[in-house]
Amino acid sequence: MAKGKPHINLVFIGHVDHGKSTTVGRLLFDAGIIDEQAMRKLKEKAQQLGKSGFEFAFVMDNLKEEQERGVTIDLAHKKFETDKYYFTIIDAPGHKDFIKNMITGTSQADAAVIVVSANPGDGVQAQTKEHIFLARTLGVQQVIILVNKMDMAKYEEKRYNEVKDQVTALLKQVGYKPDTIPFIAGAAFPGDNIFKKTDKMPWYKGPILVEAINGLSEPEKPVELPLRLPIQDVYNITGIGVVPVGRIETGKMKVGDKIIAVPGREGKGVPGEVKTIEMHHEQMQEALPGDNVGFNVRGFGKKDIARGDVLGHESNVPTVATEFTAQIIVLNHPTVMTVGYTPVFHIHTAQVACQITELTKKINPATGETIQEKPDFLKNGDAAIIKVKPVQPLVIEKQKDIPQLARFAVRDSGQTVAAGMCIDLVKK
After folding, report:
1. Are residues 98 and 16 in the same domain?
2. What is the mean pLDDT of residues 300-306?
3. Could you read off the pLDDT of 50-85 as tens digits, one per residue?
4. SS3 268
5. At 396, is the pLDDT very low, low, confident or very high (cuts 50, 70, 90)?
6. Where residue 239 sits, what CATH number does that domain have?
7. pLDDT band at 87 (very low <50, low <70, confident <90, very high)
8. Alpha-carbon gap, residue 329 to 226, rounded angstroms
9. Are 79 and 34 in contact (CB under 8 A)?
């Protein structure tokens, strides 16, 4: 971990084949993170597989199956630094089947680069819309738009402006302010305006991609919010005892703090006192949002806590809900969603089956206006307010109180069917 520089999680999203992976590969190659030799190997491999031109994409798509299909399946994480920031780059799949990874990736992101192809015939696609809306719903504050494949559009300003206008309309629809968002004219495969300025578009006066990334604002650490630490794993280490591991979402945790894990075993909550905190094998006195820590707690037994429990201070216990109201968008349901449907909700590190008890109203995702009261069903693309009852107690917070613990994805039989956030709840 580069000490001293602020850290930003940056996700690259966009429609399949609009050049996300190639953009990331080009950025890392030009920045010298991948050397010539490794790049040459990928180039040969691409040619062997009959995928000439996919070599930059292969930097991220390093799973064999992905290389053969030419599609990004899993989230790839790579480190990248500028003079100002230390980045974790998440290359999220644009492909339909892989949207679940796109959600887990995006919900961790501080900023997003949305890649839109200027290739005549491409431009804004259904999924470009979906991704911009998702970025919004999942709380990504800062976005950069890369109008990619300008080489396919003969580097013409007219085509760039057409795509820019289409995307601007979409951004407005979901409530982003387009005048605060950088738009970049670039071409990742030949390397125009990604890491190096090109001379092929003298009409373009804006930043190149690496400058735009460097110009992002440092994400605020929500230290003033109450402590919320969702538990990822629980280890039992000889001589030390029970060591829970997780990432602090909000607030801070100090050695000596009186804490409680909820729901905990039997849903009663398990109190304890923080004895030690460790990050990257170093002992620390205090941990802050974004820190991935292991810690030891006086009072926690092996069977008391598990993945999905959330830790907070005794003075501000995380909220356990018996039911909640959510705003969702249906992304990818095979048929329609109706009352009684019980998919699995993925919230922070918890995975809990929840029953939909009411479809309250269908809304316009951009404005929040009601389109229809109590609809009979919801289909792909619908945004709605619904009521939900978890089959077992679950920690979730309201979007307006602690947004980091309000967002969720809804999954069913191996795919993500919806994403959303909690706007109200009934406390246990």
Report:
1. yes
2. 90
3. 665 555 555 444 444 434 444 433 334 456 788 898
4. coil
5. very high
6. 2.40.30.10
7. confident
8. 28
9. no
Residue 288 lies in a domain: yes
Give the pair of three-digit tokens for residue 427.
Answer: 């406390």
Q: Same domain, yes or no, for 261 and 329?
A: no
Q: Say if residue 75 is in the same domain as residue 208.
A: yes
- Residue 144 resides in a domain: yes
Cα distances (angstroms) measured from residue 304 to each of 240, 276, 371, 395, 396: 16, 18, 46, 16, 20
Distance in angstroms (rounded) separating the CA atoms of residues 298 and 314: 14
- CA gap 150, 23 in Å, rounded: 13
How many structural domains does the chain have?
Answer: 3
Residues 304 and 324 in one domain: no
| pTM, entire model | 0.67
67 contacts 61 by C-beta, under 8 angstroms: yes
Within this chain, do residues 147 and 244 fall inside the same structural domain, yes or no? no
Choose the final residue of a domain: 269, 284, 313.
Answer: 313
* Domain stop point among 261, 286, 313: 313
The H or E element that residue 414 is part of is none
Q: What is the pLDDT of residues 314-330, one digit of tens each?
A: 999 999 999 999 998 88
Three-state secondary structure readout of 85-150: CEEEEEECCCCHHHHHHHHHHHHCCCEEEEEEECCCCCCCCHHHHHHHHHHHHCCCCEEEEEEECH
DSSP states of 210-257 as a string?
HHHHHTSPPPPP-TTSPPBEEEEEEEEETTTEEEEEEE--BS-EETT-
What residues have CB less than 8 Å from 307, skipping those under 6 apart? 231, 232, 233, 234, 349, 350
Candidates 257, 292, 251, 289; CA nearest to 274 is 257
- 258 & 127 share domain: no
DSSP codes joined into one string, 150-192 = GGGGTT-HHHHHHHHHHHHHHHHHHT--GGGS-EEE-BTTTTB
Pairing of β 142-148 and β 111-117: parallel
Residue pair 65/90 in contact by the 8 Å Cβ criterion: no
Same domain? 19 vs 67: yes
CATH number at residue 57: 3.40.50.300
User: Residue 106: is its pLDDT beyond 70?
Assistant: no
Bridge partners of 90, per DSSP, are: 11, 77
Q: Are residues 179 and 306 in the same domain?
A: no
- Whether 220 maps to a domain, the answer reads no
Q: State which residues form the domain around 388.
A: 320-427
